[in-house]
Design a protein that fits this description.
alpha/beta; six-stranded antiparallel beta sheet; six-stranded mixed beta sheet; 15 strands
Length: 662
């Protein structure tokens, strides 16, 4: 099935006053309608006009903000969008559609400044369908038109009907996986199999409900077993749904935190480094402070020693001089020692030498020159005290030098760290450190949240395994009931019918699984090829892998797996374009691709690749590109040969723009 837009006409819609229109290219070899405009010129309003005409979105109550401001000032009371398009069904039947949605209103002043607003809004709808083959005209009411458009563009794919650069970059976030699966199922008609499965389940329950129940018999007992098994299955499904909801909420918060943190990811290591250096500097300063306190206490305790050190040196020198002059007893021969030696019956010195008469005479002479014992001991004790005090002073001086050296070393370390902090700060934006605590808190929350999501995903795996077990239990109990019914001649026919319904349901589910697997396999293969054709470094990528839940991973050339939502924005952007192209090819559903600023996050090389491959990527589809001035010069040269029509949105005033054919 295919849809091709032909013409859109706007009046008083957003910035487009009076009549503005665009003729979309429907040529097969030139499928691109190229619309150029500066930011805020009204590109998104054109898409909103298309959405409103097709899907009645936004709703009527939200339209008053869209009405052109100058139209209100001129007291004009009507806004409309008219859209012409044609469809081609699976049998190649073509139908032309002409849709017009109108809003009529009154103009009212509100507020102290007299702001003009539309009020008493009344919507109107006109639609017609023409078959060129039979020339049959048919007027459509809103209900008929809605059924038709729901068939061509189901609710699931509508999120992907219009994509901008931001949506492409966020397409593969976990919270979007269910939408991607819904899109794939809707475009590939998997929902029709779901309808068959649901109808067979209803048939099974309807047949079973018609059977009379008799308390206490085996059939009634088996029914209760089925009910219990189904209750267990529903509990497991409810558990899974709750976990899925929690994961979706956590993923949404994780995505928000990641957006806030990603911009700081490169800066955070430097900020962390500065923070660690500052902590280290602070610790060193505390240590140096304690060293100063210790030095102060040391000096307070030993200051007298340091002050009299020179005096002690002088005193010891004077004693040595007096010793030499014989005015005080020599320090080497105290009187009690001489007496001890002379009293020795073996006449031996302390060293073991014999005391000759000559030595004895020398000792006696010394003894004669020594004053009394008490004076001698006082002199020797005084000398010893001075020597000890000097030794202690030297030791204290060594300790003092060590303490001063340690303080100096701490100061050098602190200065070195200060220099490192200054160097690191050169690479940081001004004022970023003031936000550090807030950033750090977000990073901490982000990391905790990622751990929480991993735990929830493990629990979800257990819930899914539980569902598998409970489904088998339900099937087993149902099979047992069918066996009981078939054994009873009264219920034999019913037993055969419900068995047929159950087996048919199982077969339909198996078919659905195989269809989904084949779709995933095709998309995986096709998206891998197209991704590598578009990406700027194809040599670094091996393939794109999609699992049964439509979780998409990129596999690098060295077999490293990267989750799609962990790719860079540019990589996700390229992957999104390849994905949209691949999914359309496998489902055979060709709806227009409308891209608003699709290349804003992509570097020049992939833009060139996209331009060169756009015809192949969007094979059979109509493409509408809304581009900004920066994208215009980068993409247009590469797609000029496939552009069928070009328009420029001229911004006349802050509230008015005009569409002009280029």
């Amino acid at each position: 099935m295919k849809i091709f837009l032909e013409k859109v006409m706007l009046k008083n819609w957003g910035p487009f006053k009076d009549d503005n229109e665009i003729d979309f290219s429907t040529e097969i070899d030139k499928p691109v309608t190229y619309i150029y405009g500066l930011n805020s010129s009204g590109k998104s309003h054109i898409f909103e006009a298309i959405c409103w005409s097709l899907f009645d979105e936004p709703k009527t109550e939200d339209l008053k903000e869209i009405v052109n401001k100058e139209a209100l000032q001129n007291n004009e009371k009507e806004m409309f969008v008219r859209l012409k398009f044609f469809t081609i069904d699976d049998y190649e039947n073509k139908f032309d559609y002409d849709i017009k949605r109108i809003i009529r209103f009154e103009v009212k002043k509100e507020g102290n400044n007299g702001t003009l607003l539309p009020t008493m809004i009344k919507p109107d709808f006109h639609a017609s369908r023409v078959s060129p083959l039979t020339n049959e005209h048919k007027q459509l009411n809103q209900s008929d038109f809605k059924k038709m458009i729901d068939n061509y563009i189901p609710l699931g794919p509508r999120r992907f009907f219009f994509l901008d650069g931001e949506k492409l970059a966020t397409l593969f976030q976990k919270e979007n996986l269910s939408r991607i699966e819904s899109y794939a199922n809707a475009l590939s008609d998997v929902h029709l199999i779901d309808n068959v499965i649901e109808n067979l389940d209803n048939l099974y329950n309807s047949l079973l409900a018609k059977q009379p129940q008799k308390k206490g018999d085996k059939i009634e007992t088996q029914r209760n077993k089925i009910k219990k098994a189904e209750d267990n299955l529903n509990s497991a499904i409810s558990w899974k749904d709750q976990l899925s909801q929690r994961i979706t909420q956590a993923d949404s918060l994780e995505n928000t935190l990641r957006k806030e943190c990603e911009s700081f990811e490169e800066l955070k290591p430097k900020i962390d480094s500065i923070k660690q250096l500052e902590i280290k500097k602070h610790d060193l300063e505390l240590e140096r402070k304690q060293q100063f306190i210790g030095l102060k206490e040391f000096l307070n305790q030993n200051l007298p020693v340091f002050f009299i050190d020179s005096e002690l040196q002088w005193s010891l020198h004077e004693l040595e001089e007096l010793d030499k002059k014989g005015k005080i007893p020599p320090k080497r021969t105290p009187p009690d020692l001489i007496e001890l030696i002379l009293a020795d019956p073996e006449k031996k010195c302390i060293c073991g030498r014999e005391i000759t008469d000559e030595i004895k005479q020398d000792f006696l002479k010394i003894q004669e020159t020594i004053p009394d014992k008490q004076f001698n001991r006082l002199v020797q004790d005084f000398r010893l005290d001075i020597s000890r005090t000097l030794t202690d002073s030297k030791e204290k001086n060594v300790i003092l030098v060590q303490k001063l050296a340690a303080i100096k070393e701490k100061g050098i370390s602190i200065n070195r760290i200060s220099s490192d902090i200054t160097s690191e700060r050169k690479f940081l934006p001004k004022g970023i450190e003031k936000e550090f605590d807030n950033i750090n808190e977000k990073f901490t929350r982000w990391n905790h949240l990622k751990d929480e999501i991993r735990d929830l995903e493990h629990e979800l795996d257990r819930a899914e395994n539980s569902i598998i077990v409970q489904k088998r239990s339900v099937e087993s109990e149902k099979a047992a009931l069918e066996t009981l019914l078939k054994k009873d001649k009264k219920h034999e026919k019913v037993g055969e019918l419900i068995e047929f319904a159950r087996i048919s349901q199982q077969t339909a589910e198996e078919i659905k699984n195989e269809v989904q697997k084949s779709i995933i396999a095709f998309v995986s293969e096709n998206i891998s090829t197209e991704f590598k054709e578009l990406i700027w470094d194809p040599q670094n990528w091996d393939s794109i892998r999609i699992d049964d839940s439509w979780k998409i991973d990129a596999i690098t050339s060295n077999n490293f797996t990267i989750q799609s939502d962990r790719l860079s924005q540019g990589q996700r952007h390229v992957l999104g374009i390849a994905f949209m192209s691949s999914l359309g090819k496998v489902t055979g559903n060709y709806i227009p691709f409308i891209f608003d600023s699709p290349f804003g996050r992509v570097s020049q090389e992939p833009i060139e690749n996209i331009g060169k491959n756009l015809t192949k990527l969007m094979e059979g589809r109509q493409v509408v590109l809304f581009v900004t001035d920066t994208e215009d010069t980068s993409i247009k040269p590469h797609i000029e040969n496939i552009i069928g029509s070009t328009y420029i949105i001229n911004k006349i005033t802050a509230t008015e723009s005009r569409i002009k054919v280029n």
